[in-house]
User: What shape does this take?
Amino acid sequence: MKLPIITMLFLPLMATAQNSESDSLLLQQALRGEKTVNLPLFQTKFTADPSPLVVGDTLFLFTSHDASPEDIPDENERSSAGFFMYDWLLWSTTDMVNWTEHGAVASLKDFTWRSRENGAWAIQTVERNGKYYLYAPLHGHGIGVLVADSPYGPFRDPLGQPLVWQREHWEDIDPTVYTDTDGQAYMYWGNPHTYYARLNDDMISLHDSIVRLNYHIEHYQEGPWFYKRNNKYYLAFASTCCPEGLGYAMSDSPTGPWTSMGHIMRPTQRDRGNHPGICDFKGRTYVFGQNYDLMHIQSFVHHERRSVSAAELKYRPDGTIEEVPYWLDLKPLEQLHWLNPYHRVEAETMAWGYGLKSAKMGIENTGVVADMPKSTGRRNMYVYDVDEGEYIRLRGVDFSEGAKEFQLVASALGKCTVTLRLDRSDGPVIATLGLKGTGSLEQYKSFTTKVRRATGIHDLYLCFSHITAPVRLDWWQFKK
Assistant: This one.
């Protein structure tokens, strides 16, 4: 995934899609801070198949994970355009613009009955009675389910076998689960046919037989997302491939019949695949989907290295959904509240951090199945692979009447300068902090520096330069 920015901006683009040249220019301008557009939410990893879950004042987003080339075991496949997916990731936010990464929440290793080392496809996680149920397709092995006491995990397999596996075909993918107001839970899934089944109250067994719809929902391809709003049932989905847009259907019943209502986002040659996730959060509705915009910063040669984006969703009075333009044609999401810099902020919390990487402490999770642990639950993370000229951006930081000191907990094998700037990567400097060797990358120390002219609400940039050896960043905090 990593390329030096100055090199990346002049890569020859083998573009075949319409608008590719203008998108390339737009992405380059956005990286340089010359344009403000709705870029992918995450940059430390390639992500797809977004599954939002709201718990209290926090929106958790589970995603699948497209391996970066260096994490694909077979060197001959690292330039392949295929899918290489080994685990599922978790992210969270309270303001919709600054996201905290929580790393791999589960992996293929959590299903001991699988035989394939690839195929960690689109999941959905739901909550019921204080338990969290993660429904996962293992391509070619049906749909399994994991259970945890927390959205962070650790997740465990209660069945030791698939929940659903119709062995006569490979259509058991992309499960979506919703519990209706009467307590009955339903699971939809399938490509190209649409299937559903009722779940028992335990959420890990089927109430009765699997039903395949005896009709095709217009535009339906895969990736259903099932929910209810104002007594209307919705089934959003990835529309007919390829390229895939985001379509949806509506019904007065949880089992249909379903009437196609058109598109949430129309197919476009600027994209290829898609996958919806929809939720209400703090009085607004959001649709999440996927694209190749992060990969297109590097190249327009096609690979399955996707990235998740989001947009606000609006309903008309009759319950139908207003169409949403393509992600890059939208303004960035509106921030729901300002970030408080006087509480501990994890280094892996960011609005933008292209080129950086992150990992759980104590776990060398390379993305390769053989190197992965089973679900570990919540672990502290660190940011690494920090190169000259890179930065972490936080949006909407409220310094209030003024910050006096900045503290950063980090480890280093050599030196690194961290320059704190406001509003732009070349904006006003409010502090400069010098990191020096801590003895090892596993030994973290606290570094502090004085802060000047930091008042009011600003975007904050942690800019890295003069790096002589690897560093790892744990967390930071301002003091008044």
